Amino acid sequence: MIATERGGPPPIVAGALEARLAASDADIEAAQALRYQVFFEEMAARPSPEVKARRRDFDAFDAVCDHLLVLDHSAGQGGQVVGTYRLLRRREAMRHFGFYTTQEYDISHLLAYPGEVLELGRSCVDTRYRNRPTMNLLWGAIAAYVAQYEIELMFGCASFPGTDPAALALPLSYLHYFHLAPPALRPRALPDRFIDMRLLPEEAIDPKQGLSRLPPLIKGYLRLGGFVGEGAVIDRDFNTVDVSIVVKTELVTEKYLRHYERASRDSQVD
Q1: pLDDT digits (tens, 9 = 90+) for 216-250
Q2: Is 94 contained in some domain?
Q3: Which sign does the torsion angle of CA 181, 187, 191, 193 carry?
Q4: Beta-sheet strands, E only, within 171-250
Q5: E strand or H helix at 158, and its extent?
Q6: CA dihedral sign, ordered 113, 214, 239, 188
Q7: Cα–Cα–Cα angle for 38, 232, 176, nearest 5°?
Q8: Parallel, antiparallel, or unpaired: how do β-strands 233-235 and 66-72 relate?
Q9: CB–CB of 96/35 below 8 Å?
Q10: Domain span at 247
Q11: pLDDT tens digits for 4-60?
């Protein structure tokens, strides 16, 4: 199944947890099984008959992406996959199917960006591991990946549970008014899928309340200086309302990569 080049940054270890890229088809299958557990069993996405029969979330993009894994080595021999991210660089995207995000958003501005870009997708973590150590490890590994491949811009989609934008009027409006990407980097929802995020007038928005209503992953992107694109998209198959995310990588590498470089050096000191 794996079609991308092997290698990548070295693993990052924190106690019993390890973050590394998938190195085998078995690794990818374990990530797909976790995705099925989170997306279909927990979040009530609608599986195709084949996905349901195999109890794995999979599509054609899996064969051309790098798969970042977090494994818990205290959970059995070889470790259990408890977190995953799917990573797609421009070169692999252009050689194969393009970027997954184009199914929902016009990303022509991002494709015109002169530096290296990376699409993030299929992020999920086992419910028992949704804590700061696991997320820090994931982002430390992403920072190492970003540094190795000299990536300047990351993008993708992030989701709210449910398919009713009206129920998300406050957080969607907050994102539009306070975190909209600059025009030169701004994705826009495709015309036939476009949902206006301006569901409340700007003067009615309490920024603190708007921020508090965001899912943790979107909050994390904003803390790194991330932006959102224009328009939301309803994904009925995954039972979500999606927004596009754009993040420049300077803060990612500064915050996470340097932290784990220091930790690695400290671990080598007698």
Answers
A1: 999 999 998 999 999 999 999 999 999 999 999 98
A2: yes
A3: negative
A4: 188-189, 227-228, 233-235, 240-248
A5: strand 151-161
A6: negative
A7: 115
A8: unpaired
A9: no
A10: 86-267
A11: 445 689 999 999 999 999 999 999 999 999 999 999 999 999 999 999 999 999 999
CATH number of the domain bearing residue 90: 3.40.630
Residue 171 belongs to a domain: yes
Residue 79: both structure tokens together = 């470790």
pTM: 0.91
* Tokens linked to 9: 């940054």
**H/E segment holding residue 67:** strand 66-72
The number of distinct structural domains making up the chain is: 1
Q: Which residue has the tokens 């084949």?
A: 50
> Distance between CA atoms of 106 and 229, rounded to whole angstroms?
10
Q: Which two tokens stand for residue 224?
A: 């790194």
Q: For residue 3, what pLDDT band results from cuts at 50, 70 and 90?
A: very low
Task: For residue range 117-158, list pLDDT tens digits in order.
Answer: 999 999 999 999 999 889 889 999 999 999 999 999 999 999
Token pair 């915050």 in the structure block, residue:
255
Closest CA to 103 of 193, 223, 227, 222: 193
SS3 106: strand
| Cβ atoms of 84 and 124 closer than 8 Å | yes
Q: Is the dihedral of CA 156, 198, 210, 238 positive or negative?
A: negative
Residue 147 included in any domain: yes
Lookup: tokens for 247: 């993040």
Is 258 part of a structural domain of the chain?
yes
